[in-house]
Amino acid sequence: MNWKIVSFLLSINYTAFVILSKIINKGSMNVMEVSTNYIVIAALIVVLFFRKHLRCKLDYNQLLLFIMALIMISHEYLIQYGNDLLTNFGVIDSLAISMYIPLVTVILFVFFREKISPKKMVGIGITLVGAYMLLS
């Protein structure tokens, strides 16, 4: 699948997630209940429909998967928490994305030797200016 299609689908995914999160946070569940329950429901879906892809080998990759799971849990909790704040979540997410893009670009350059082209540098600059405009 083309990366532009993946980006588009991710944007729809993120948008739907934020909207559903806002709706459910207005109900009777608190942030921890929402986070815990939808992660458990997601785990059940994976076990039911994707169990042949489960991997239970104690090695370095399993350690990395465990760390990724911890990051995912904290990520999902922070999204729920951010959606529960009075601050517009778009502002919160914009700041996060404006920090994420340059960080990932530099980390990929330093640790994975990915090149930073002039086009990428301009893109980072535009992102930072756009984030500044959204946040001010």
Spans of at least 5 consecutive residues whose pLDDT stays below 50 are none
Query: What overall form do the CA principal axes indicate?
Result: globular
User: Would you tell me the overall average pLDDT?
Assistant: 89
The end-to-end distance, rounded to whole angstroms, is 37 Å
Q: Strand share of the residues?
A: under 5%
Radius of gyration, in angstroms, nearest whole number: 18 Å
How many helical stretches?
5
**Which series of helices and strands comes N to C?**
HHHHH
Number of E-state strands: 0
SS-based structural class?
mainly alpha
Give a verbal description of the structure.
The chain is an all-alpha fold and 136 residues long. It contains 5 helices and no strands. The protein has helices spanning 3-25, 31-50, 60-84, 89-112, 118-135. Helix 2 (31-50) crosses helix 3 (60-84). The longest helix is centred in the middle third of the chain and has 25 residues, at 60-84. The radius of gyration is 18 Å and the shape is globular. The protein starts with a helix and ends with a helix. The relative contact order is 0.08.
